[in-house]
Amino acid sequence: MSRVDVSILFKRRAGIPSHLIEVQFCSNSDLSRIKASSPWGRICAVLLFCLSNLPLAHAAATLLLEEPYSYDGTFAGTGHSAVYLSNVCSVSPVVLRPCAAGESGVVLSRYDGIAGYDWIAIPLLPYLYAVDRPEDIPLFADAKLVDFLRDQYRRDHLQALVPDRPDGGKPEGNWYELVGSSYARTIYGFEIETNPKQDALLIEKFNQQPNHESYNFVRRNCADFVREVIDFYYPHALHRSVIGDLGVTTPKQIAKMLLQYSHHHAELQSSNFIMPQVPGTVRRSKPVHGVLESVMAAKKYMLPLVVLHPYIGGGLLAEYFGHRRFDPARKALILDSSNQLDDPMTRDQRVTYQSRMNEMIQGSSLLDPSNDGANDRRVRGKTWEHSLASAQPGFDGAGQPILQFQFGDDWAQVGVARSNLMSVSQSPELAAKLLEARLRQDLRPSTAHKTSSRDVDKDLKLFRQLLAPPSGAIAVTPPSTVVSHAPATATASYR
Q1: pLDDT band for position 67 (cuts 50, 70, 90)
Q2: Residue 65 CB: number of other CB atoms within 10 A?
Q3: How far is CA 33 from CA 25, 40, 49, 55, in A?
């Protein structure tokens, strides 16, 4: 029986990207069997047949390749690796179960120094953004807001794993790596089809075997853990690179191997995509490297090796350039804010969007109150950064994130998510500056190829609305009317 594939849709489950589903319709040969029926009979038969041949959404495992930042980005540069399982959920961070209808799965990863456990399971949305709902994802974030959201999620969901200090304060340690990863890194996803039977066996295995901390950089690091999970589904799919990574399993190596495995097994549905780092003042992550790439990049190590050991040095150079050719962003689509896959922004689109934004700013009195040069982009940028530095994070009455700005004895709150930027912001000017900062970051030549054009178009429409506020805009209000949780008192310690 022949069937014609119409399209591959990126499924959304409770607002979370999970996996691909295949939509299939009947072919002409199928319809010929019922052409002698009555018109209504033919229609009902076609619908029944097509629905009966629509396969259930399959499960998927997605390898998450995460760019390095801070010290890791400066020195080793190998980044981090985790695995997202769309049909595996959790009773607790250390006990797994099958997902119920509408649930979106968990991210599993190996950690070092968190409550003595080897692996921990976190739902996908909190893992990426430290929030429970898609509508709460910030448009722009600084270190204080990131720290606030992470600590609030810990207090709400991870107290048993990471309790408060005796004085009720935030604990020290690496626990912040559990949630909010997209604030610190760009993440590449490499997805491959699985099935419910495999998921059930993995759940049984993980729940039965000991879960004791056993991290070791050389033999039991985060990439080793992901390799073991993927190999459970597809034995021997991933392996270390003895030369390219000097025998150490690295996130980049296993991502490269999974992509090759997917290409060699076309019968398995697969995809690869980019989850951009959230715009903000948090330092941007750096390109991910393998071990040998990091060594070769340091000429003080490479040149003596080639001179003293030309055969070894030449072999390493050959492996290095072969390893370096793998670009995780190559041919990857962008996961936008609606959890749909979009093509990367082109150069022409970037120029067009930049011109549109500049025209809006030039024609606005909100961002151009005088002609003394305050409308200059660099001046406005510095002014915004100065205002942001003194802002305090909190939540509005609906539990969505806001920033609170103080002006003398008065306060103004500004929503930081698309869903509350217009509705709760008490200063249209500050809201417009926040969105302008996001747009300028998205439209940089260095980041445009990792940006969704649909998101930029959506933000420009919102920007236009902010620059033309209604006549009855709310004025700045005193702090007693601002609904929020206690402000965070310290910023996160970034590696």
Answers
A1: very high
A2: 29
A3: 15, 15, 11, 22
Query: Measuring CA to CA, which residue among 338, 330, 331, 286 is closest to residue 453?
Result: 338
- For residue 377, the number of C-alpha atoms closer than 13 Å in the C-beta half-sphere is 12
**Confidence (pLDDT) at 385:** 80
Predicted confidence (pLDDT) per residue in 276-324, tens digit:
999 999 999 998 876 556 555 544 444 444 444 454 444 555 555 555 5
Query: What does DSSP say about strands 270-275 and 333-335: parallel, antiparallel, or unpaired?
Result: parallel
d(CA 223, CA 78) in angstroms, rounded, equals 10
DSSP string, 369-437: --SSSTTSHHHHHHHHHHHHHT-EEEE-TTS-EEEEEEETTEEEEEE-BTTTTTTS-S-HHHHHHHHHH
All residues at 6 or more sequence positions from 222 whose CB lies less than 8 Å from its CB, including other chains:
80, 81, 82, 109, 110, 111, 251
**Residue 136 near residue 148 (C-beta atoms within 8 A):** no
Stretch (H or E) spanning 291: helix 291-297
Distances (CA, A) of 32 to 26, 27, 41, 276, 305: 10, 9, 13, 48, 72
Phi-psi region of 373 (alpha: psi -120 to 50; beta: other; left: phi over 0): left
More confidently predicted of 206 and 12: 206
- Provide the CA 244 distance to its chain's centre, in angstroms: 27
Contact assessment for residue 374 and residue 361, using Cβ atoms and an 8 Å cutoff: no
